Hints:
The structure is a single chain. The chain is built from 5 helices and 19 strands. The chain has helices at about 10-20, 80-90, 195-205, 210-215, 250-255; strands spanning about 30-35, 40, 45-55, 60-65, 65-75, 105-115, 115-125, 130-135, 150-155, 160-165, 170-175, 180-185, 190-195, 220-230, 235-240, 260-265, 265, 270, 275-280. The protein folds into 2 domains: about 10-140, no CATH class; about 190-280, TolA/TonB C-terminal domain, CATH 3.30.2420. The strands form 5 sheets. The chain has an 8-stranded antiparallel β-sheet with strand order 2-1-3-4-5-6-7-8, covered by helices on one side. A 4-stranded antiparallel β-sheet has the order 9-10-11-12, with no helix packed on it. The chain is an alpha+beta fold. Strand 17 and strand 18 form a beta hairpin.
Amino acid sequence: xxxxxxxxxxxxxxxxxxxxxxxxxxxxxxxxxxxxxxxxxxxxxxxxxxxxxxxxxxxxxxxxxxxxxxxxxxxxxxxxxxxxxxxxxxxxxxxxxxxxxxxxxxxxxxxxxxxxxxxxxxxxxxxxxxxxxxxxxxxxxxxxxxxxxxxxxxxxxxxxxxxxxxxxxxxxxxxxxxxxxxxxxxxxxxxxxxxxxxxxxxxxxxxxxxxxxxxxxxxxxxxxxxxxxxxxxxxxxxxxxxxxxxxxxxxxxxxxxxxxxxxxxxxxxxxxxxxxxxxxxxxxxx
Length: 286
């Protein structure tokens, strides 16, 4: 599954380079999102995206609590929904579960921003995600000819380690201090349901009851639930990554807790803990 940055000078370069493409657009269109820009929502939220439409590209800028956290220029996409899908894939560092076939025709020049400074510069083309550069909080470049290392503490207090080679992530893992364990976010063989992912998703969706309160309110939603697959394949440590409410996340977690064990992830033939996140759509039908 599963960050990084060019310097502020980039902003002026980008605006200058793209200004010739702009239509007569004085103000961008804007949308609000759930956490991590997973799902577009109608109510006001801390996560806001601005869209700037040009003749051959779309530029977006993401804000959290009013502060810029992502900037990007994307091409080869037909709708705002496609833009949002590719953006979420890049936010999730190219997690395979979020890949869509139409990405193969798209390109993206993506920047992660922290406290007004670019920390990661990414390029996406022909379905491949590559890191141009990663900077630490002191503005020091961490990659040399596409190779290097980065570590940081995420919002959950976990220490994340990333090892790069040939401008791609070759190894990524995190240490959870409260459990004193290691979760591997890359592996030689990923964790998978014994019946395969398609059958797993089909069975999960069919088994989840639509929350009655949501049905009465006419509420639909797309939720994300994160969990750990341990060395024995047991699903543990469930955590909602969305906040749709109406018991959507609770229904998904309750069902996941009752499902059979998976085949665990393997590194050099050894079972290891890994982390997985799944999306589930709740859609009303007649």
